[in-house]
């Protein structure tokens, strides 16, 4: 079939809207009509050329929601008409990772997903004679896309696509990092570095978990009012102090119980670790740093009980946990609407990247 897509032709170039060819679903695969997709910092990171796994030409996008149009042979859990959220972290429930109970990093299709192709090693997308790479196994910047069955979470049919698409990455990553990775407990103190599309969800997750002190740190003071609405109790403008760590340690009499780095800056990752309380403070890295970058601290920081951890997709097991988060939204337990600051058609998708780089948006959503 033919469908419309935004193509990343090369690193650093604006996306181009074209009609592309999409082959139907093969064994274990599902054809989905994407109804809405968010634009995340990670799409910009790959488009910039900083992503070591970045491939071109490709159809980016990993934060979508849509409807099943067709299923390939062997698909048993989904049928045409089902509403779904694509999962860049799939959940096969059979591999050694899924059955370990210790991680959400399913290994079933990792090798081919990282190479921009479907599990059988081929791409379903092409334009003319040229093949286009898939991206993160999802490619939601196309109006239709093909995914493995294990990379789709089935969700309720009354959930609005233009809001719950954000659960495909930012919402789940931020809230999940608090609830499933850090397991923040009531009464905890928390520091959140970077108050963008991920950090604001960390803040609302910390409030849900019952944290009593939630300190937000950003270079952009315009982020303060929205962060306060989501539960931030204190704000540090990082552009106005040389000693963020000292400030947090003093404010909390020794450091926070949990910190979250939501930027992708290795220097800030160090600050996030070192503002944690001696003996038990845990710092969770969410931000994705550029190719070749490394983190550093004095080992004594770890010897004296601080813990450095990371999280992908908030530790969420996609097919199991994503439908629950959709329920939380529909029940009014989490706020997504205030974070979606811009909505636009596919033809204006490059504006979404501009707004992100200018710090003017939290989330832009493309509706098809
Ligand atoms: P964003 O651009 O919306 O937000 C980043 C925020 O950090 C901005 O408000 C910016 O002003 C602030 N900032 C930048 N430099 C700073 C500094 N030195 N000190 C303090 N604040 C600073 O980005 P986002 O969409 O929220 O994504 C954040 C990071 O999370 C990215 O690296 C993205 O790739 C990553 N990410 C990780 C996962 C995962 O599963 N681990 C999932 C999605 C996104
Ligand atoms: O299993 O080796 C692996 C990697 C799984 C990919 C997880 C990606 C997590 C962070 C990328 C940001 C997502 C938007
Ligand atoms: Zn698995």
TrEMBL record:
Q: Where is the Enoyl reductase (ER) domain?
A: 12-366
Q: Which domain of life is it from?
A: Bacteria
Q: Please name the SUPFAM superfamilies in this protein's record.
A: GroES-like, NAD(P)-binding Rossmann-fold domains
Q: Which reaction does it catalyse?
A: a secondary alcohol + NAD(+) = a ketone + NADH + H(+); S-(hydroxymethyl)glutathione + NAD(+) = S-formylglutathione + NADH + H(+); S-(hydroxymethyl)glutathione + NADP(+) = S-formylglutathione + NADPH + H(+); a primary alcohol + NAD(+) = an aldehyde + NADH + H(+)
UniProt xrefs under SMART domains: PKS_ER
Identify the CDD domains for this entry. Answer: alcohol_DH_class_III
Pfam families according to UniProt: ADH_N, ADH_zinc_N
Known EC number: 1.1.1.284
UniProt-listed NCBIfam families = adh_III_F_hyde
Q: Main role? A: Has high formaldehyde dehydrogenase activity in the presence of glutathione and catalyzes the oxidation of normal alcohols in a reaction that is not GSH-dependent. In addition, hemithiolacetals other than those formed from GSH, including omega-thiol fatty acids, also are substrates. Also acts as a S-nitroso-glutathione reductase by catalyzing the NADH-dependent reduction of S-nitrosoglutathione.
What name has this protein been given in UniProt?
S-(hydroxymethyl)glutathione dehydrogenase
Species source reads: Marinibaculum pumilum
